[in-house]
Design goal:
Number of helices: 12
Oligomer: single chain
Mean pLDDT: 85
Distance between the termini: 8 Å
Structural class: mainly alpha
Order of helices and strands: HHHHHHHHHHHH
Radius of gyration: 18 Å
Shape: globular
Strand content: under 5%
Number of strands: 0
Helix content: over 70%
Length: 278
C-alpha cells in the first residue's frame, strides 16, 4: 500500500471515530445519526456541479448503498442506545473486516497476500479484544452490533465495486451521500411527526454538519483507497479508528481506560505494521 494511501485511510479513521463519538454523546442518538447523514449530504452538494456524473454502471450500486446506509445509521443509533461504546464499536468495526476478508476472493476475485491477511487478522483480533473490557451492554447491544457488522461488510463491497465502475470515486462518494438522509428523515417524520424532528434539527444542526463533513471525508478517503489497494486491506486498516476512539474517550470525554484498551491498541498497531511491510 503506498504511503499516501495509508495516510489518508488513517486520517479517515480519525474522522470516523470523531463522528461516532458525536452520536454516542448526543441526547437523541437516532436523530443525531440522521443529522450527521444530512450533514454529509450538505457538505457534498457544493462540489457536485464540478464533478462528472457517476457512470451508468454505478447507478444500481448507488441505490443499493442508500438502503444499506439507511440500515447502518439506524443500527448505529440503536446499538449506542443499548450498549457502551467500548462494547459496541469494537464489535461493529472488528467483525466487518473479517467478513470482507473471508468473502473478498469469492465475490471480487481479489487475492490478498499472506502478509496482508496476517495484518487483517491481527488488527481484527486487537479490535475484538476491546469487547472483553466492556462493563456495560448486554445481549441486545451485541446482537445489534453484529447485525451492523454485516451491513458494514455489505456496503463495503457495494461501494467498493460501485466506485470502480463509476470511473470517478469522488463523484460516486458525493452522490452516494444524498439518498440516505432522505430515507432517514422520511422515517423520522413518519415515526415522530414534524415538530419534534424540526426542533432537534434547529438545536443541533451545527454538530450534524461537522459530523457529516467528517463522515463523508472519512468514507471518501476509504473509497479512493479501494481503487488503489485491495478492498479487504483498506477495510481492515480503516478499522484502526478504534485507536482514535480510545484516545477521544480518554483525553476528551475523560473516560477511564482499562489495560485491555492499551493491549488492544498495541495489537492493532502491530497489525498495521505487518500490513504495511507486506
Amino acid at each position: 500500500m503506498p504511503i499516501d494511501v495509508l495516510f489518508l485511510v488513517l486520517l479517515g479513521a480519525l474522522l470516523h471515530a470523531s463522528w461516532n463519538a458525536l452520536v454516542k454523546a448526543g441526547s437523541d442518538k437516532a436523530l443525531d445519526a440522521t443529522l450527521i447523514a444530512a450533514g454529509a449530504a450538505a457538505c457534498s452538494i457544493p462540489f457536485l456541479p464540478f464533478l462528472p456524473l457517476p457512470g451508468a454502471a454505478a447507478v444500481p450500486f448507488l441505490f443499493a448503498s442508500a438502503v444499506l446506509q439507511f440500515l447502518y445509521f439506524r443500527l448505529v443509533a440503536a446499538a449506542y442506545t443499548a450498549g457502551d461504546i467500548s462494547l459496541v464499536y469494537p464489535i461493529m468495526r472488528g467483525v466487518a473486516p473479517l467478513i470482507v476478508a473471508a468473502a473478498s476472493n469469492l465475490l471480487l476475485g481479489e487475492a490478498v497476500s499472506p502478509a496482508a491477511l496476517a495484518g487483517i487478522i491481527i488488527i481484527s483480533a486487537g479490535i475484538l479484544t476491546l469487547a472483553f473490557e466492556a462493563r456495560r451492554g448486554g445481549r441486545r447491544a451485541i446482537i445489534l452490533s453484529l447485525a451492523n457488522a454485516v451491513v458494514i461488510a455489505g456496503y463495503t463491497f457495494v461501494d467498493g465495486v460501485g466506485a470502480r465502475l463509476s470511473s470517478n470515486p469522488v463523484s460516486y462518494t458525493l452522490w452516494m451521500s444524498l439518498l440516505p438522509p432522505a430515507l432517514l428523515f422520511s422515517w423520522a417524520f413518519y415515526q415522530r411527526g414534524w415538530a419534534p424532528v424540526a426542533n432537534h434539527v434547529r438545536r443541533n444542526w451545527l454538530r450534524g454538519l461537522a459530523g457529516g463533513c467528517g463522515s463523508i471525508l472519512s468514507y471518501g478517503f476509504a473509497l479512493w483507497a479501494m481503487t488503489k489497494a485491495p478492498v479487504a486491506v483498506v477495510a481492515a486498516l480503516r478499522e484502526t479508528s478504534i485507536l482514535f476512539a480510545v484516545a477521544i474517550s480518554v483525553f476528551i470525554l475523560k473516560e477511564s481506560a482499562s489495560n485491555w484498551r492499551y493491549v488492544a491498541a498495541a495489537v492493532i498497531a502491530l497489525g498495521v505494521l505487518v500490513m504495511r511491510l507486506g
